[in-house]
Specification:
Layout lengths: L5 H26 L1 E2 L2 E2 L7 H5 L1
Antiparallel strand pairs: 1-2
C-alpha cells in the first residue's frame, strides 16, 4: 500500500485551485466579463477626465 500524505494532497489541491482561479481571473479581462456575465460598458466621466 502506498504512503498517502494527506497534507501534500491538500497543498496540491490548493495550489491547483490557485492556478486555475488566477487564470480565470485573467480571462475575465480578456473577454470583458465575469465568468459568463458580460460587463456593462462604463460611461466616461468627462469632468473626471479633465482633472
Amino acid at each position: 500500500m502506498a504512503n498517502f500524505d494527506t497534507d501534500q494532497l491538500k497543498r496540491n489541491i490548493l495550489n491547483d485551485m490557485r492556478v486555475e482561479l488566477a487564470d480565470e481571473f485573467d480571462r475575465n479581462f480578456e473577454r470583458k466579463a465575469f465568468f459568463t456575465r458580460k460587463w456593462k460598458p462604463r460611461r466616461i466621466c468627462f469632468y473626471a477626465a479633465m482633472l
